[in-house]
C-alpha cells in the first residue's frame, strides 16, 4: 500500500507545472493526500479515472484547503473535527476504511510574528483529542504539513531558529504530546539519525539547491502499525512546490475485499 502526502502550495499552480494524474498512475499511488490547495473544488477540472476525490475547501477562497485522491472508496468520510472554530479553513479530511482511518491534515501556521501561536496550540489540542478518539476505534494514519520541525535534527539551523514559528518550544511540545498518546513519526521510526532529510525549503537564497530546509511534513501512525511499515520516503527530487511529497509504504490493505473503483 503506497500513500503519498504533499503540500502543493496551490493546486492550480501545480497542475500548470505537471500532469498530476499521470504522475499518480506512473507511481502506482494508492492514495494522494494534498494540503494547501488554495482553491475550491469547482475552480478546476481535474479528472481522475480510477480514483475517488474528496475535498475540504476553506470558507475563504484562495486559502488553505485539503484533498484526498484514493483508489479505494471509504466506508465513511468526515470533514473537519466537528468544532466550528476549527473547521472553517478546510484543514482536515478523515476517510474511514475497514482496517484504519486515513487523515489528510494541514496544521495552522503560528505566523512569523507568532500572532497565531495561541490558536495553533488550541487547534493542536483539539486535533490530539480527535485522533485519540479515532485510535480507540481502529488504527490511525494521518499525514500532511504539520508546520513544526520536531527536533533539532529536523532543520538545518536549529540554534538560530529557536523560538521562531515552526520551532517554538510550545509547538514542539505539542507534537511530542501527540506522539506520547500512542503515535509514531514513521520517518524517524525508520531513520532515527538521518540528517539533511527535509521536506520544505524557502524560495530564497537557493535554499532547495543547497538543501537548507525543514522537515515539517509527516506520516504519523498508531503505534500498533509499526511492524507494518515497509518504508518512509522523502521524494525531494519531485518539484512543483516549496514542499516535496513524502511517501509511506505499508504492508496492509484498505479493505478486506479490495473494493476499488
From TrEMBL:
UniProt KW keywords: Hydrolase, Magnesium, Metal-binding
Keyword flag Transmembrane helix: no
Cofactor(s) recorded in Swiss-Prot or TrEMBL: Mn(2+); Mg(2+)
Domain Endonuclease/exonuclease/phosphatase as annotated: residue spans: 4-243
Keyword Chaperone in record: no
Pfam families: Exo_endo_phos
Family: Belongs to the DNA repair enzymes AP/ExoA family.
Name the UniProt record assigns to this protein: Exodeoxyribonuclease III
Amino acid at each position: 500500500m503506497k500513500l503519498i502526502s504533499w503540500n502543493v502550495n496551490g493546486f492550480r499552480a501545480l497542475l500548470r507545472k505537471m500532469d498530476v494524474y499521470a504522475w499518480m498512475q506512473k507511481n502506482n499511488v494508492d492514495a494522494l493526500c494534498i494540503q494547501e490547495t488554495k482553491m475550491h473544488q469547482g475552480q478546476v477540472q481535474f479528472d481522475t479515472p480510477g480514483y475517488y476525490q474528496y475535498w475540504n475547501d476553506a470558507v475563504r477562497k484562495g486559502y488553505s484547503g485539503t484533498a484526498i485522491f484514493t483508489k479505494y472508496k471509504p466506508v465513511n468520510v468526515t470533514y473537519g473535527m466537528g468544532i466550528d472554530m476549527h473547521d472553517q479553513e478546510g484543514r482536515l479530511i478523515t476517510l474511514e476504511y475497514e482496517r484504519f482511518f486515513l487523515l489528510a491534515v494541514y496544521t495552522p501556521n503560528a505566523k512569523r510574528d507568532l500572532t497565531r501561536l495561541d490558536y495553533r496550540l488550541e487547534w493542536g489540542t483539539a486535533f490530539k483529542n480527535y485522533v485519540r478518539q479515532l485510535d480507540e476505534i481502529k488504527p490511525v494514519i494521518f499525514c500532511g504539513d504539520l508546520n513544526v520541525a520536531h527536533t533539532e535534527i529536523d532543520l538545518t539551523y536549529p540554534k538560530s531558529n529557536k523560538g521562531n514559528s515552526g520551532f517554538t518550544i510550545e509547538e514542539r511540545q505539542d507534537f511530542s504530546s501527540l506522539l506520547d498518546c500512542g503515535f509514531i513519526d514513521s520517518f524517524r521510526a525508520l531513520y532515527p539519525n538521518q540528517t539533511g532529510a527535509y521536506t520544505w525549503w524557502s524560495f530564497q537564497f537557493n535554499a532547495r539547491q543547497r538543501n537548507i530546509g525543514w522537515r515539517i511534513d509527516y506520516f504519523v501512525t498508531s503505534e500498533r502499525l509499526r511492524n507494518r511499515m515497509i518504508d518512509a520516503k522523502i521524494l525531494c527530487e519531485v518539484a512543483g512546490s516549496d514542499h516535496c511529497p513524502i511517501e509511506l509504504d505499508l504492508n496492509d490493505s484498505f479493505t478486506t475485499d479490495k473494493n476499488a473503483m
